[in-house]
Amino acid sequence: MRKFLTTSFLLFSLIATSQNFLSWQFNDRYFSFSIGTGASTYFGELNSKNTISDDISQFNLGIEARLLNRIGARIDASIFSLSGDDRNAADSSFQRQRNLSFNSRNLHFQLHTIYYLKPYQGDYYKRWFFDPFIFTGVGYMRFNPTADLGGETYILREAQTEGVEYKKWVTTIPVGIGAKVKANEFLNINLEISYHFAFTDYLDDVSNTYASEFSNATSELLSDRKEEIGVVNPEFYDQIQPGTMRGNPDNNDSFLQISIKAEIFLPPDLFSRKNKAIIKKPSAY
User: HEC states along 122-142?
Assistant: First the structure.
């Protein structure tokens, strides 16, 4: 009898635990967390061929909330690198004779509004296997272009290679498309392509004219680097002088990002404390 009661109690406990697990599993979830990586490509004066980079150069984190039937919102933070080099330009071009380059490690915060092409299914675990979306929003990015000279790395903003002191932070506007692929009840694999418009032409430290005055000799060498390669094109070599055009101020810089992310749905009570919601549950309908 005792064995029967013990077995019955264990079986009942197992069933109750399973029911609780299923309830926890299938209780609708509106918030998700994502982590990912990918490639970043800069577009500006130092990418004359508009070559797309396939180097892994970014790491990103995000928290998303499903707000309405087709609308979501996401906070995204990322660290990524951008680079450009006139050595990749054609030998006959002005860019090759100019011989400038940059590398930049950037910190980017974004707020996205997401529009899903398919309606919400009513429960997160019943979501579409393939869920395409588009998004836009606003970003705020810290950029820091640098260049190597004589075995040392210099911050180009501080060198003032064009006699301009530009800001460290810039506003961006992202526009992108993507799709979520359902891996299991809790996990998505997300693919995204986004284009980012920057409200500056100095992501690469190149925009306007060659400066005529410098605080030191190093700044002058960072501004005009044609002598490092000698005469590649006599016409362009003679054009590079203080006060002449160094870049194109009519077009701001931009960048493209291709990302792959793992997205996991968060427990519904994660943002609650003592039964009092810290973040209110979205409607998702």
Answer: CCHHHCCCEEEEEEEEEEEEE
Average of per-residue pLDDT across 148-157: 96
Q: Is residue 17 part of a domain?
A: no
Q: Is residue 66 part of a domain?
A: yes
Residues 249 and 225: their CA atoms lie apart, in Å, by 20
Whether 10 maps to a domain, the answer reads: no
- Give 82-119 as a DSSP string: EEEEGGGS-TTSHHHHH--EEEEEEEEEEEEEEEESS-
Q: What is the pLDDT of residues 169-194, one digit of tens each?
A: 999 999 999 999 999 989 999 999 99
User: What whole-number distance in Å separates Cα of residue 182 and Cα of residue 195?
Assistant: 25
Range of the domain at 143: 29-91+101-149+165-207+250-269
Q: Which amino acid is at 189?
A: I
- Contacts for 48-51 with beta carbons within 8 Å, 24 or more apart? 48/86, 48/88, 48/89, 48/90, 48/93, 48/95, 49/88, 49/89, 51/88
Residue 178: inside a domain, yes or no?
Answer: yes
How many separate domains does the chain show?
A: 1
Mean pLDDT (the chain, rounded): 89
0.90 exceeded by pTM: no
Task: Please check whether residue 86 is in contact with residue 229, taking contact to mean a CB–CB distance below 8 angstroms.
Answer: no
Q: For the residues 108-128, what does the mean pLDDT come to?
A: 93
Q: Tell me what pLDDT residue 13 has.
A: 45
For residues 234 and 73, the answer to whether their CB atoms sit within 8 Å is no
DSSP conformational letter for 227: G
- Tell me if residue 221 falls in helix, strand or coil: helix
CATH label of the domain that carries residue 145: 2.40.160.20
For residue 205, the one-letter residue type is D
